[in-house]
Amino acid sequence: MKGFLAFLVAGGPLMIPLGICSVLALAVIIERLLNLRRSKILLPEVAQLVETIDGPRDVDLALKILDRNPGSLSNVIRAGLESRHLPPEEAREIVADAGRREAKEIERGITALEAIAGVAPLLGLLGTVTGMIRVFRVIALIGVGNANALSGGISEALITTAVGLSIAIPALVAYHFFSSRSAEIVSDMEHLASTLLRKLRGMRGEEDRLP
């Protein structure tokens, strides 16, 4: 433990923002792993509902199922069901707008990983620059004969770079992983919404004939 604390101190003041970056990245990764799961967003009950809805009489039951299964997909499907009496283009736009809102929610936090992946190496580079400035300042004062005096600046220069890269690389990998997963989930959500809209268009005449 003492060795680890000495390592952090040797990195200089820039270890503080680097530490904050690491904590934020870890928090976002854990949160996304828990919440960006296919089964959590594309609830099987709601996805099955889209496949099985067959006529106007199924709409009330479908809305009750959506009430019992709240979430992003439920919100998009509800927008389609509640706009079923509107002209097809207007209903499609309402569903698309609901889909865009839910897509933003699904992608929440992912851009923070991209920002951390970009900022952490720059902080490390800044630590390298400030460490080398310290080295040259020591050289100007006492020359190059005192290795102990030079070691502080060299340690700061190397440690911050290593720590910055150690934060940025996992953050960048996680960013691409979650971006790919969210894109797949949004694509599947769009497919289900399109399927629902086609069914609703087919039900318009049938619903008008109901007693």
Quick take:
The chain has helices at 2-10, 15-35, 38-41, 44-52, 59-68, 72-82, 88-106, 110-142, 147-208.
Please provide a written account of the structure.
This protein is mainly α and 211 residues long. It has one domain. The chain has 9 helices and no strands. Helix 2 runs parallel beside helix 9 and helix 8 (110-142) runs antiparallel to helix 9 (147-208). The radius of gyration is 27 Å and the shape is rod-shaped. Residues 207-211 have low confidence and may be disordered.
First and last CA, distance: 77 Å
* Global structural class: mainly alpha
Number of domains: 1
Question: Helicity level, as a percent range?
Answer: over 70%
What is the residue-averaged pLDDT? 84
Q: Sheet bearing the most strands, described?
A: none
Shape by Cα distribution: rod-shaped
Number of DSSP helical runs: 9
The overall strand count is 0
H/E element sequence: HHHHHHHHH
- Estimate the strand proportion: under 5%
Low-confidence stretches: 207-211
- The rounded Rg comes to 27 Å
Give structural attributes:
single chain, 211 residues, mainly alpha, 9 helices, rod-shaped, disordered C terminus
Question: Topology, pairings included?
Answer:
Blueprint: H1 2-10, H2 15-35, H3 38-41, H4 44-52, H5 59-68, H6 72-82, H7 88-106, H8 110-142, H9 147-208
